[in-house]
Amino acid sequence: MSVLAALLFAQLAAFAPADEYKLVNPRAIELFERDQRLMQWALAKYDGNRDGYLSIFEADKAAGEFKQIADGDRDGHVTPAEYRSAWGFIVARWGDQVASARSR
Ligand SMILES: [Ca+2]
Ligand SMILES: [Ca+2]
């Protein structure tokens, strides 16, 4: 194996973990793009690399937690009522923190 091929192979291997992470919901980002309050919450908790943007991987994890919070009866679905109640919980619990993070 040439040095170049070895380097290339090492790089591919380094990228492998991200490729192996399976997105639960590749469109999770849309949930946060629709709602600035949820976006602020997701950024505060899940912006892992602190670049100020939610990647699809970060959004996927945030959406997973949102669903856990929202799905009160654990039937696997989030009804509009469950969504509203989770939204209220997050804004009440995280609103101040999010507001202070923004003014910093
Ligand atoms: Ca990010
Ligand atoms: Ca439910």
Automatic annotation (TrEMBL):
InterPro entries: EF-hand-dom_pair, EF_Hand_1_Ca_BS. Transmembrane segments: none annotated. Residues 1-18 form the signal peptide. It comes from the Bacteria. Keywords: Signal. Coiled coil: none annotated. This is EF-hand domain-containing protein.
